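assembly run, all chains below
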Amino acid sequence: MTEASRHPLTLDGRDPANLRGDPITGDRYWSREFAQKEWDHLWTRIWHVAGRTAELREPGDFVVHNFMKESVICVAQVDGSIKAFYNSCQHRGMRLVEQSSSVAAFNCPYHGWRWGTDGVLQFAQDPHDFPGGDPCGKLKLKKLRCDTWGGFVWYTMDDQAPSLAKFLHPMIDVFKGYPMDTAVRVAWYRIALNTNWKFVTDNFSESYHTRTAHPQVPPWIDQDVDTSRHDMWPGGHGRTVQPMRPSLSDRLPEGVPHFFDEILRQWDIDPDHYASFEEKTMQGWLDLKAAKRRLWKERGYLHYEQMDDEQLTDSLHTVMFPNVTISFLPDNLVFFRSEPHPDDPEKCYFDLWCMAFPVAGQTTVDSIMAGPKPLAEVESCEHRDFDGGRGIPELVGQIVYQDMTLAEGQQAGMHSRGYSDAHLSAQETRVRFVHEVLNDYLEGGK
Ligand code: FES
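ok done. output:
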């Protein structure tokens, strides 16, 4: 048991007794009325990620986050703080900026008003012509609450929402061992998918699909149901913790080189000195923890300093309610997010940010979901349409690509008169749990 798993709020995410049993009906994935309820009671009340703090290093650096029909600017201030504003000119509503950049001030393209990065109006044409007097120095852009955690910039549209720390609780305690703000974004995609946004959250709330959809994973990350741990927390957050060692029930054919052997060698452990595959897997995994503890500093793995034993060698695949997933791996963070399409509940945008912890002397990293990448911040996001897989050929064979190929089929099935509710295994308990917390929001219980 780790520090994290002992958190008093942790619930067993494999125990259906922690559920009410709310049905996961098909209309949740296609009904416009349901999507409107989500906007009214969920999206306008939660905290959203606008970008990375690494994008806001200098005063005037800003990120734009478009969410459905809303648009928000988060901009770095002279004192190093970050302010968030609606991306809407207070003169006549014009959208001020279209994409993230850096400015000395925001110049409205319609009538030329100029807004300071602190949100205060600096210039208006013909200021004497306003019946109420010169608006400069008085009028301000409409502000939102903004905060940071994990190197991410967050905002909420709800003035009454609980703080970011409360919204995420207890994730901030649970993941304090990872120096998340040091992680470098090495791959950055936004992919249009023909499915409801909840496909992504559902999919990341269980690993039951892995053997079928991702057969390459079990020899790398142990997928055995009884060696995984499923945690969930009252705010709707949850995670699957799996050792990054081969599943004993998914052995590669004799003679096929094993990825785990390579990892052991990397940490000066001879994979051939174990008497059996089972011993190598189980004892090697313990030896790996010990070797990392011993060698991290001299090898430049400075991000290991505060990690616990579990974090040093395991995969902590974590859904932050309702739509952010972070895969915590010893050397990588993979950020996934789905956001609804502004007009069509049967479409969504899927964000994939691959981040790596820098290691001294490394120039390239395995981005886990997008292949090897240079260890450097990518400048801009790649916008793609999945288009049956044709829109993103460079990800063919990757785990996320395999997930995306399933999205349309499940969306189609949600329309069937033959589907009325999911029939879940215990290890999929978190799928229903997320829907129950969503219902709490929609019905005003949260
Ligand atoms: Fe912005 Fe008129 S709408 S200056």
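The pocket of FE2/S2 (inorganic) cluster is lined by residues 89, 91-92, 94, 108, 110-113 (CB under 6 Å).

The first strand starts at residue 11 and ends at 12.

not gonna interpret more than that til we talk
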